Amino acid sequence: MEKIKKIWNGFDFILSLLAVIGMVLLFMMMLAVCWEVFTRYFLGRGTIWVIELSEYTMLYMTFLGTAWLLKNEGHVEMDIIMAFLNPRTQRFLKVTTSIISGLLCLLLTWSGIEVAVDHLQRGLHQPTLVAPPDFPIFIVIPIGFFLLFVQFMRRAHGFLIVKEPKKEKERVLA
Question: Is 23 helix (H, G, I), strand (E, B) or coil?
Fold first, then answer.
């Protein structure tokens, strides 16, 4: 049991670290956009790399932080529907959607690995002015989806092991 707790603590550390990296990327993107505005309006010439860098940064921010967001239950949820359901049905739906979502993430992990490796083997580059190689851009997708898969399965397990809440009368007597 202690080993499993250490593994999950390590996983949580990785999720937090990747979320911080995503935040740093966001800050760097903000600085780059400010630089672009400054150079374009005050120096009379812009850069060719800021827009492209921002696109790749948004991709990385999304896939590095999404499992951390799920861990903290920050994803969009249909609260208006869930509010009308009893706790048992809510738990069933959360377990079911977590398992289905996790399996979809696993499928997308596999597909993402295939695409990234294919582009690496063929030496493909982005058809843009900067023309970076595809592999470093694409590899974050399967990494992010794999982390999401693990977190969705962990979430489903967490909802499964939660004990059924006592009924109101039992709580008052207890």
Answer: helix
Residue 103 structural domain? 2-173
Q: How many whole angstroms separate alpha carbon 131 and alpha carbon 124? A: 9
pLDDT of amino acid 118: 97
Q: How many secondary structure helices (H) and strands (E) does the chain include?
A: 7, 0
Can you tell me the distance from the alpha carbon of 137 to that of 130, in angstroms, rounded to the nearest whole number? 13
Q: Is 81 exposed, middle or buried (0-12, 13-18, 19+ CB in 10 A)?
A: exposed
- DSSP string covering 75-94: S---HHHHTTS-HHHHHHHH
How much is the pLDDT for 109? 98
Token pair recorded at residue 108: 């997308």
| Domains of the chain: total | 1
Q: Which parts of the chain have pLDDT scores under 70?
A: 163-174
Q: What is the pTM for the complete model shown? A: 0.85
CA distance 126 to 122: 12
